[in-house]
Structures are given as structure tokens and as C-alpha cells.
Design a protein that fits this description.
By secondary structure, the chain is an alpha+beta fold. It folds into 2 domains: 68-196, Phox-like domain (PX Domain); 212-307, Methane Monooxygenase Hydroxylase, Chain G, domain 1 (Up-down Bundle). The chain has 9 helices and 6 strands. The protein has helices spanning 3-20, 28-34, 104-117, 137-155, 164-171, 180-190, 212-245, 252-270, 278-307, and strands at residues 44-49, 54-57, 68-78, 83-92, 99-103, 203-205. Strands 2-1-6 form a 3-stranded mixed sheet, covered by helices on one side. A 3-stranded antiparallel sheet has the order 3-4-5. A hairpin with a 6-residue loop joins strand 4 (83-92) and strand 5. Helix 1 (3-20) runs parallel beside helix 7 (212-245) and helix 8 runs antiparallel to helix 9 (278-307). The longest helix is centred in the C-terminal third of the chain and has 34 residues, at 212-245. The chain is globular, with a radius of gyration of 24 Å.
């Protein structure tokens, strides 16, 4: 095995170890130790983009990323009017331009399939479920907008857009009188053995012109950054949740604490000088921290003025 390719595989294993060590129940340890002997026609490539200077998922030549429109929400009923729902029309910008109808529960099914299969790709969350007021016009329109944003994030991803669950979701017609094809596709996706850690068997690595020293440097930078990054994200999340719980009574110290959390998070981001877009994220995070600190100063000044 070429040295460069071997180091790439080592880098991926390190990523898995640090990011997904708590996913043992999904077979990561077993895959790293024993691999997978299954044969598959599913192939995904990771390459190094020398122009952008970062490792990225390669586009599938047979199915490039595409866009969708979620339109025409329409209230429907079933079981003799006992059960009501909203159905959305999905217009897919691919060959054939099919239009299919989907309910929220089918979006939920797609989300579940993607999360279970692609453990190593960040799947954005769906808009939350709602019971009260879900047929009100304002809510339906906002839900339509959010679903469209979510679906386009999925369909623009070079790996997800070509996956069977996504293709089945955006192309398979589903009606009350004709749902056999939909159910057959659902079963195929749900019985897919190449999911969770075993899906890594489908991933291959493209060689590059990076030197062994460059790749070792990337690995070292990742190892140094990851523990702190994970810790600061956790602290930031907990701090924001605490702040939201107390948003009705704003205190200067609370706002300063949020500023400090963003500042610590930004310092960790600064450690990575190679990842595409990381500098922009770091700069934006610093601006957020500065803004919160300014708000705290304004609040402090307001309190003093009120005292006099």
C-alpha cells in the first residue's frame, strides 16, 4: 500500500476514533478491527482538492448535486376524514423533472434513513414536529420553507444526493391506489446492510500530491484541536441553553458568560489553519463574542443610569 494512501487511512481512522468513539454500539470498533467482506456496487470517493486546500467528498459522476422546490402545500384526509395531513409537492431539478407528493412523516423517514446509514456525514435536523396549530396557514408556509431548505441541503451534498434513500424519496410516485413501489423502496433502504460503520466499506481514497510530512502535519493538528473543540462546543451549548432558560431575566454576567464561551470556542478554531472556511468561521465567532460583550456593557450602563 502506498505510504500516502496509508496515512490517509490513518487520518480517517483518527477522525473516527475522536469523533465517534461514543458510537461503539454502531460497530465502529468492530469495523476498524475486522473490516467488511461484503461486496457492493455503492462507491464513494474522498479526494484532496489542491485548489481549495482541503479533503472533501468527491462528486458522483452519474448523479451530481441538484436542487428541489417544495411547493403547493395541500390539506388532505384519509380514513374517511378521520385523519388529516398536509402534503407538499416536490419539484426536482433533475432529468425528467418529476413532481411527487410528500407528507412530513415521509420527510421524517428520509431523515431517519440518512442518519442511520451515514454516521460520518453531518445530517441536518428536520423542523420539529408540532401538534397544535399545524394546519394554520402561517405555520404551513413556514414549515414548507424549512422543509425546502432542509431538502436542498441534502440534495446539494455530493454523497447524499446520489444515495438510494434520497433518490427514492424525490422520484417515486406515491398515491393511495399505487404505493407498492414506494413500499418496496422503503424495505430496500431499511434492510440495507451497508450502514453505520460498515458503510465505510464503500469509501475509497484518492491519492494526491501531498507529501508525507504535510499529511502528518494535518493529523497532528487534528489530534491537538479535537479534544478542545469537543469540550468547547459542549460548554457553548450548555451555556446557550442555560441562557435561553433564563431569557426573561437578563443579567449582565449571563451575557458576559455567553461572550466568554464564544471567545473560548474561537480560540480553538484558530488552531486549525488549513481547513477550508475555518478562518471565516473563526472571524465570525469572534464578532459574535464581541457583540455579546458590547451588549453586556450596554446593560451595565443602563443599570447605572437607572440607579441615579
Amino acid at each position: 500500500m502506498p505510504t500516502t494512501l496509508y496515512i490517509y487511512m490513518t487520518l480517517v481512522e483518527l477522525l473516527i476514533f475522536f469523533l465517534f468513539r461514543f458510537f461503539d454500539k454502531h460497530g465502529v470498533d468492530n469495523y476498524l478491527l475486522h473490516g467488511c467482506k461484503a461486496k457492493t456496487d455503492e462507491h464513494v470517493h474522498i479526494g484532496y482538492d489542491e485548489k481549495e486546500g482541503g479533503i472533501c467528498w468527491s462528486h458522483n459522476p452519474t448523479m451530481p448535486p441538484f436542487t428541489c422546490k417544495v411547493e403547493e402545500p395541500l390539506k388532505g384526509t384519509k380514513l374517511g376524514g378521520f385523519k388529516s395531513f398536509i402534503e407538499y409537492k416536490i419539484h426536482t431539478q433533475i432529468s425528467g423533472n418529476r413532481v411527487v407528493g410528500r407528507r412530513y412523516k415521509q420527510f421524517d423517514w428520509l431523515h431517519e434513513q440518512l442518519v442511520n446509514k451515514f454516521r460520518f456525514i453531518c445530517i441536518p435536523p428536520l423542523p420539529e414536529k408540532q401538534i397544535a396549530g399545524r394546519f394554520e396557514q402561517e405555520f404551513v408556509e413556514e414549515r414548507r420553507r424549512q422543509l425546502e431548505l432542509w431538502l436542498n441541503r441534502i440534495c446539494r451534498h455530493p454523497v447524499l444526493c446520489a444515495s438510494f434513500p434520497v433518490q427514492h424519496f424525490v422520484t417515486c410516485e406515491l398515491t393511495d391506489g399505487n404505493n407498492k413501489e414506494w413500499k418496496a423502496g422503503k424495505r430496500r433502504s431499511e434492510k440495507d446492510e451497508l450502514r453505520e460503520a460498515v458503510w465505510l466499506h464503500c469509501v475509497t481514497f484518492t491519492n494526491s500530491n501531498l507529501s508525507d510530512a504535510d499529511i502528518t502535519s494535518y493529523i497532528d493538528a487534528f489530534v491537538q484541536q479535537q479534544p478542545s473543540l469537543e469540550s468547547q462546543i459542549k460548554n457553548l451549548t450548555q451555556g446557550l441553553v442555560k441562557y435561553l432558560e433564563r431569557h426573561t431575566e437578563i443579567y449582565e454576567r449571563d451575557i458576559q458568560r455567553i461572550s466568554e464561551l464564544f471567545a473560548k470556542f474561537q480560540k480553538v478554531l484558530q488552531m486549525d489553519t488549513t481547513t477550508l472556511g475555518n478562518k471565516e468561521l473563526s472571524d465570525s465567532t469572534l464578532k459574535v463574542s464581541t457583540a455579546y460583550n458590547s451588549i453586556a456593557d450596554l446593560y451595565k450602563t443602563k443599570v447605572r443610569l437607572q440607579m441615579y
